[in-house]
Amino acid sequence: MDYETINHRYELQAVWTENFQRRLLRGLKTPPPWKVLEIGSGTGAFLRQINRLASSNFSFWGVDIDFSALVFAEKIRKGLWICGDGNSIPMKSDSFDLVLCHYLLLWLPDPVNVLNEMFRCCKPQGIIAVTAEPDYDGRIDFPETEQADGKEQTEALSKAGIDPAAGRKLLHWMLQAGIHNPIIGIHGIERNLDDQSQFISEEKSQCRIDLKRTEPGITTDPLKHDEIFFVPTFYSYAVKS
Fold first, then answer.
1. Over the stretch 51-67, which tens digit does the pLDDT of each residue have?
2. Nearest by Cα to 80 from 35, 50, 119
C-alpha cells in the first residue's frame, strides 16, 4: 500500500476542518491537562494537524487497526500510536477529554458500535466528536459535463466500501449510540479563486485515482474557473453527561 499517497490525501482533508478543530479544543470544560484520542488515526495526519493548533497542555493518542499505517505515522512523528479496533477500543473507560474521528464512519459496517466505544472512553463532561462525514449522494458537480465522472467516482467509492449517504445518517447514528443532545452541522467553505482552482485540481486528480485512470499527482487537465465540486460534509459533537 502506498502510504505516502494516502498520507498526502489525509493531510489535505485534515486542513479542511481546521476551524472546527479549534472550536473543539477551546470548548473543553474538563480541567487540564487534556488527553485527546482519535479512532481511525491512520497515518497520523489529522492528529499532527490538530496538535499544531493545541497548547502544551494536550497529549494525543491514535488508535487504528492498520499496523503498517501506525508504523508510517511513527516515522513522521513519534507519538502514542496503538494498534486496535474501534469496535473494542483498547482504552479504559472515562479516560479521555476529547474522543474523535475524522472521515471514518462512512467506511464502517457498524458505526453505531464504534460511537458507543468512543462514548465509553470519554470522560464525563468531555466531548465526543465526529469531525467529518461526507454525503456523496448529495454531491454537486458543475458544469454538467463533470457530473458523469462524479457519479462514477461515487459508485467506485461505494464498491470500495463506503456508505455514500453517511453524512445525512450521522445524527441518527449519534442518537442510536445513546449520545444525548448532539449538535449537528455541515462544514461551510470560502475560497478565493486561486485556492478554489487548486482545490478543483486536487479533487480531479483524486477522482482519476479513484477511477484508476492515472497515477497520483495533480491533474494537468485544463480548469474552468467556474467549476464547482461540493460534497456536503457533516459533523456532530456532544458533551458526555
1. 999 999 999 999 999 99
2. 35
Q: What DSSP assignment string belongs to the chain?
A: --HHHHHHHHHHHHHHTHHHHHHHHHT--SPSSEEEEEES-TTSHHHHHHHHHS-TTEEEEEEES-HHHHHHHHHHS--EEEE-BTTB-SS-TT-EEEEEESS-GGG-S-HHHHHHHHHHHEEEEEEEEEEEEE-GGG-EEESGGGHHHHHHHHHHHHHHT--TTHHHHHHHHHHHTT--S-EEEE------HHHHHHHHHHHHHHHHHHTT-S-SS---SPPPTT-EEE--EEEEEEE--
- Quote the CA–CA distance of 82 and 62 in Å, as a whole number: 6
Asked whether the whole model's pTM tops 0.90, one would answer yes
Residue with cell 485540481: 201
Residue type, 214: T
Question: pLDDT tens digits for 189-227?
Answer: 999 999 999 999 999 999 999 998 865 554 455 556 689
